[in-house]
Specification:
Length: about 475
């Protein structure tokens, strides 16, 4: 799995008809900055409102997942989102000039292909994974549906379906790593049973449905009169049924294509939690309603974890900036360069790491018989971390200096000693105006706050 966030290198466009609305639409995937996530923009509506791909914005689950925000609605988002998750793309603005993404061939492949052609661009921030901490479970006994999420240091999904059908029977599909999505899952098309088809039309759905973008499973004997009526309904001169029960001689791309498509839908629906996931997902007879209910449970656990946002440090993960990149940004040098790594950096927040060792030069004179890191050095290390954040707000940081203007409400909670790893987290508390930045900062050791302060700094051009 990727450690760094990614967007796409250039805009890419697809066009087609929407499955349920039947409306022709053009959809453009646009590059987006770090921390942006997935957002749809209805450019055909006044004000071009934006709809966040968020489970809290789901308003309808009639044979697809529909989201709504700011007076704008986007239907059937799951195939589009599944393609982005499958390619491990984190930040994209999806501009749409209609109410529904094009259905294309009924799978995610027709989105995967142009996104691949556009190319992926690595961004200077780590992916903000939510790692499922313990079992999260959703059960709907009435529909015999069960979905469970278990801890795992990757993203693995298994789906089992049982349609009580002589044509499909019981099927299962698995994805042992999300990197296999493109080759194993993306091409699997949406489907429905013949007995559902007429009901969907009566519900004013699948207006854009066609045998070129959906599989229709025929699980009973069909008379010639019924086939004639179906042809009229689908706008076809004639339809037929193959021996294996697929309408109009459509060949399956995989023997278990329906189960694979259910897995595709699950990937797309779970994208609505808003962060990439790590965990093992086991789903029996899933559907959009169950997927979204399960996604809400995951998001609730995420919010509970985020309510006490203590930064975590995994030494095995590649940093956003190593010591050489820090030295290329900050003017400090030995013995005053006090930050070893930057492990998170976005438009508002930075997290830095300082490994405290007995070899620090200040321990020679600061309580040598009882080595304690001086508070002023902790402030300086926090200031350097904040300097990285401030310089990230200008386009050419190498051409600027940062100078401290003030420190307020500074508190030291616990002593810091050799062997400690300090994690500094600084957050902009207001937009940078006239070169002045205001931040709040906290320092943690073993998940406990050791110091905190409010700081202000000035950004000055080197040639000023």
């Amino acid at each position: 799995m990727n450690d760094k966030q990614h967007t796409i290198k250039a805009p890419v466009t697809v066009s087609g008809i929407g499955l349920h609305t039947g409306v022709q639409a053009t959809m453009t995937f646009c590059p987006a900055p770090v921390g942006h996530g997935y957002k749809f923009q209805r450019i055909d509506l006044p004000g071009q409102p934006i709809v966040d791909a968020d489970v809290d914005n789901v308003v309808d689950l009639s044979r697809g997942t529909t989201i709504e925000q700011n007076g704008a609605r986007v239907n059937t988002v799951e195939h589009t989102l599944a393609a982005l998750v499958g390619l491990q793309i984190d930040n994209v603005l999806i501009q749409l000039d209609g109410p529904e993404p094009p259905i294309m061939d009924g799978s995610s492949y027709e989105f995967i292909k142009p996104l691949r052609e556009a190319g992926l661009e690595e961004q200077n921030a780590l992916r903000n994974y939510f790692e499922i901490p313990d079992e999260i479970r959703y059960v709907d006994n009435a529909r015999a549906v069960e979905i469970a999420g278990l801890p795992l240091d990757s993203y693995r999904l298994t789906v089992m379906v049982d349609y009580n059908s002589p044509v499909l029977g019981s099927q299962h599909a698995s994805l042992t790593d999300i990197s296999q999505f493109e080759s194993e899952i993306a091409s699997s098309r949406t489907f429905c049973f013949l007995h559902e088809l007429e009901a969907l039309y009566k519900q004013n759905l699948i207006k854009g449905g066609d045998l070129s973008n959906a599989i229709v499973v025929v699980d009973r004997v069909v008379s010639e009169d019924e086939l004639s009526d179906l042809a009229t309904m689908l706008g076809k001169p004639k339809v037929a049924v193959k021996k294996e029960g697929i309408l109009n001689n459509v060949d399956l791309r995989h023997k278990n294509e329906p189960a694979r498509h259910k897995l595709l839908d699950l990937v797309g629906d779970l994208a609505l939690v808003g962060r990439p996931l790590k965990g093992q997902i086991l789903a029996a007879r899933p559907g959009h309603a169950a997927n979204v209910a399960f996604a809400k449970r995951i998001k609730k656990r995420m919010m509970e974890a985020d309510s006490s946002p203590i930064p975590t440090y995994d030494p095995a993960r590649q940093p956003v900036m190593d010591i050489n990149q820090i030295a290329a940004t900050l003017p400090h040098r030995y013995p005053f360069l006090l930050i070893d790594k930057i492990i998170h950096l976005d438009a508002h927040t930075v997290t830095g790491v300082k490994n405290v060792t007995m070899n620090e030069p200040f321990f020679q004179g600061h309580f040598p018989g009882n080595p304690v890191m001086p508070g002023v050095m902790q402030i300086e290390a926090m200031a350097q971390t904040g300097g990285i954040l401030v310089l990230n707000t200008v386009p050419d940081p190498e051409n600027y200096w940062t100078y401290f203007l003030g420190i307020e409400n500074c508190r030291f909670r616990r002593k810091v000693i050799p062997g400690d790893t300090i994690i500094f987290k600084c957050i902009l508390t207001a937009p940078v105006k006239r070169g002045i930045a205001k931040m709040s900062g906290k320092a943690y050791v073993n998940g406990k706050v050791v110091m905190e302060a409010e700081m202000s700094a000035s950004i000055v051009r080197k040639d000023a």
